[in-house]
Every structure is written in C-alpha cells, then in structure tokens.
Amino acid sequence: xxxxxxxxxxxxxxxxxxIRHVRLRPLMYVxxxxxxxxYQLVKELIDNAVDEWLAGHVKRIRIEIEGQRFVVExxxxxxxxxxxxxxNESALTSIFTILxxxxxxxxxxxxxxxxxxxxxxxxVNALTSGLIVYTKRGNSKARYQNFARGERKSALRTGxxxxxFRRGTHVEGWLDPEIFRDTVxxxxxxxxxxxxxxxxxxxxVVEMNDEEFxxxxxxxxxxxxxxxxxxxxxKIKKDQVDVVFGWDFDTEGEEWFSxxxxxxxxxxxxxxxxxxxxxxKALMTLSKGSGLSSKELLDGLCGAVxxxxxxxxxxxxxxxxxxxxxxxxxxxxxxxxATMGWIxxxxxxxxxxxxxxxxxxxxxxxxxxxxxxxxxxTAKKRGSLPAKLAASPRCKATRRELYIVEGDSAGGxxxxxxxxxxxxxxxxxxxxxxxQQKSLKKILDNTEFQSILQSVGGGFGPDFKLKExxxxxxxxLMDADADGAHLVCLLLAFFLRYLRxxxxxxxxxxxxxxxxxxxxxxxxxxxxxxxxAEAAAPNGKPVVITRLKGHGxxxxxxxxxxxxxxxxxxIQVTTERAERALELMDDDAGIRRExxxxx
Length: 599
Description:
Blueprint: H1 18-24, H2 35-54, E1 60-66, E2 69-74, H3 91-97, H4 121-126, E3 128-136, E4 143-148, E5 151-152, E6 157-158, E7 168-175, H5 177-180, H6 187-200, E8 205-208, E9 211-213, H7 219-226, E10 231-238, E11 241-247, E12 255-260, E13 263-264, H8 270-286, H9 294-297, E14 301-307, H10 325-345, H11 347-379, E15 401-406, H12 407-417, E16 423-428, H13 440-445, H14 447-456, E17 473-477, H15 482-498, H16 500-504, E18 508-511, E19 516-520, E20 523-527, H17 530-536, E21 544-547, H18 556-564, E22 570-572, H19 575-583, H20 589-595
Parallel strand pairs: 1-8, 12-14, 15-16, 15-17, 17-18
Antiparallel strand pairs: 1-2, 2-7, 3-4, 3-7, 4-5, 4-6, 8-9, 10-11, 11-14, 12-13, 18-22, 19-20, 19-21
Helix pairs in contact: 2-6, 8-10, 12-18, 15-19, 15-20, 19-20
C-alpha cells in the first residue's frame, strides 16, 4: 500500500508559472524533447522572420545549424527595445521571458502571422542553455542581451551588431542538454523548411549553411517539382488565396500540398476541402449523366493551396489542420469560378479528364471481376499448383527458380536437365494473348497465364505482394529465334502490367539461349553467332558448326550447360528495357533482341 500524505492543505498547492512551468513540463509546449522538439524551436525563429516578410520588411533570412547550435537572422525591422508600459522591462526582455508576450496579437503590427500558433520565443529561451539576441532598428545603435534557461543573464546592452545585414534581428542559441540530452537539430527538416519558405515567399532569399534559396515561381514551381503534369496547371491567385492544380496521369488518387501563412498544414484542412469541392463540382457539371463520382474525376489530381488568414484556427498545437470555415467558402468560390472558366477555354483537356476517368472506372470493374476469377482459380485447393509444373516443394522460396519454357518438348528436356532440389519447370502451350491489348478478363481466362500466377505466387495487379512470392527467380527460357523473342515480349507485357514488382525488384531473368553449337568429337561449345560458337572452342582441330533447332531438340547435357548450370548466361530484365522492347512488338525481332540484351 502506498503511504498516505501527512498533510494536505493550502501549502500543498504549488503555483508553477511562466518559465519554471515550461522547463518542468516541456511536452506541454513542444512535441517531444528529441529532434521534432528541437526543430520546433528553430522553426519559431524562422516564423518570426517570415512574419516580417509578410509585413513587407524582410528581403533576406539566414540560418545556421550545427549540432545543438542554431543561428537565425533577418534584415527586418528588429525587435523593439523600448520600455513596455505593463512590464516596466524592455520589449525585447519581455518577449523572451514572459509567456504570451509578442507583437502578433495586434493587427497594426502584423496583418498575417506565420508564428501566431507557434511555441513562442519565451519557450525557445526556456529550453535553451544559452541565447544571445541582437537587434538593430533602422539607424539606431545595435542592442543585445544574453539569456539562459528562460532567464535573462545580462542587461540590455549597446554594442556592435554581429549580424551580416545592416539591420534586423540576429538570434544565436544552444539546445539545453538538461532537456534535450544529446539531441542534435535535424538539418534535413530545417533544410526542407528553408526550401519551402523560399517557394512560398516569392523573391525572399533564404540562406542555410551557406546554401542560398530563392524562388520567384511560387506554388507552380512546387507543383512542377513534385508531379509530371499532363493536364494543366490551372492557376488561381487572388486576394489572400493562392491555388494551383493539374492532373498527373501516373498518379493514383489525389496529392495535395497545403499551407497557411507560410506554414505547412500536413493534414490539410478546410482550405483544401474548398478547392476539392470546387474542382469536383465543375467537373461533375461537365460529366453529368456519365455516372462518374467525384473521387473518380479527381483521380490523378495534384494541387497546392496557400492561404493568408488573419486569425487562423488550427486543430492541435502543431498546426496540422486548418479549421476556418470562412476560408473554405472563400477558396471554394474562387476555385469554382476559375475552374469553370478554364473548362470553357480548354474543352479538349477537360474531355481528356472525363475520358480517362471513364476508362479507369471500366478498368476497376474489370479488376474486380478478375479478382473474383483468380479466387476461383485458387479456391479449389489452398496453395494448389498447376499439374504440369515440375515443382521443388522442399526448397526455400528465395532459392527456388521457376523456368518458364516454350512447349512440352522443351519442357521435357528441361525437366530432365534441372536440379530438382530448387529448379522448377513450367511449360507453356498454345497461343498467348498480348496483355497490352487484351482485357484483364481475357488475360486471366487464359490457362497459361493462370499457371504462371499460381506458380509465381503473391497475387496480381495492385494486390501483388513480393513477400508472398513462392520463387526467388523467374527465368524465361525461349528459343533464340524471332518466335522466341516474340514470346518473351508477350510474357514481359504480362509481367509489366500485372506482376510489375517482380520486374522492378529484379526477380525476372531471360536465359541467353545460344543459336549455334560448335562440335568436335563429343565436345560442344555454344554461341549466339557462328563466330561466337567457333571462338568458344579451344584452338586445335576444326569444329563443325550447326544451328540449334530449339531447346526441345537440345540434349539434357546441353541444357545443363547453357541453361541450368553455373556457366549459364542470365540477363536481368529492367523495366526500362522491357518497356522499350514492347514499344517495338511489331518491328524487327533483332531490334527487340538487342534491347533485351539478347543480341
């Protein structure tokens, strides 16, 4: 049983105020006492400099980060140093030692503020082991003051200004090891903030660790850097609303970048909701009767929103979600008007968006039906494999090799030549459809593709999971002629479209099959050309060179040498090479072979 307190009266109640409370309960003011908390302190100083830019008084911001040390300075108006009527202290001293002090609560000082909901300079002071603040206002002499752990350590003094600019504010500080222990300031996060600040504040020069960022392009530049826009961009910039958006047809769903008063809102908010609703309404009006949903019309949409709000309301201290209802309505009206106007001027592009949405809707329906088909294929017996697969059941999946071969004849030879401990053989029969041209249903109705899916494992399409593959390598063993190259391309089309991670992660290979054999007695040497086969034979007596008729005609020993054993030549399929080869499906087979690395 815990011991009972001896007394509990008025004297038992602690009154913890201002700085002492910040140091006693730092997590009430910063997210943590590790990297994110350290970043928040630096971000507060950057926000103050940005507020000066928003007020029209800053052109440059400089940031230095080294371990637990930070410097943030700007060329703005500087911090006032006159005596404050309520505290009887200088304004600078009050700002750094009294919670809730600052110039952002009065609109005659700042119309818009990036740091209105920040941790505050008093918290920066409270959580640092040392802080030196320099200020130079106009033609006045520079003033500076030392602080540590929330308290002032010197009077406000006059002296030389150590900043690099002619005027402004210069703050240098060190994280307090008593709070942050051995945490260092995350350079990558501060770097990202510096870059984003330069984008969101066109013309502002932001320097960090001697690297300079300046961007006059604004939000369109941000969108260009993060998406490949196929349709658009649509740009809206009016009053305090800045929006840009377009469609990236390689992107699924939507992607948004959102900001309020030069501060990112990671969970977005009503400013993004307003833009989404406006774009959706404009497109829904155009596509009336098509049966398309808002979600389908906005698929592939990439956008960025930046709003300036006098009294921003956020959900949470970390400003992750903007909750101002009036912002929603303002953004909605402006984006709706601009989008309707864009549609009238770009009817062809708008039709492309509708047509793409209809095609994707059809593909999703096909995929849903195909998923049901695949379940029927595998539902007969959990983990069932094709009857024609020569399997290696006692092998680890990562070591197992699946050879896909052309025809029963080649399959029979390959089965005899393989190492049954880890090499599996799957012979294909009949004509295979082109996965680039045929519907998903027709592809999955094909028994050969069904066999491949069962043998590879892991599922198909968006549901494919690499970790559930039952093989480590998939090897295409086809004849080294035009027909073999064409079959390789058909299989590549299937893998790229429905088993793409197998290619992207380097699990798909092509066996570099020889076309000629050089013979001398019982010895045989192989090559892609007559000269290569002849060159493979040791110098000596003449050799007889013949053309191989195909893997089905090869001896078991031949296959062991050039396809199954340690001397085999494998070509790892890359996405880039495979896609280029597929573009040339109807062209000369030699070109396809060269692109695939077979020539």
